[in-house]
Design a protein that fits this description.
Length: 51
């Protein structure tokens, strides 16, 4: 079951990339921007913690 869900997720992601590349790139950029903000928040927290 896990293998089937993995392949279904990969197929869905490929379909999304092929059918709507502009929206897919926007989504990826949004995810990366959120990860960057989270990393910056952790860095700021750690800097303030050890001052």
């Amino acid at each position: 079951m896990k293998k089937l869900l993995t392949w279904a997720g990969i197929a869905l992601a490929l379909f999304f990339l092929i059918s709507s590349p502009n929206e897919a790139s926007g989504f990826v950029n949004s995810v990366l921007a959120n990860l960057q903000q989270a990393a910056e928040a952790v860095i700021t927290f750690m800097q303030n913690l050890f001052r």
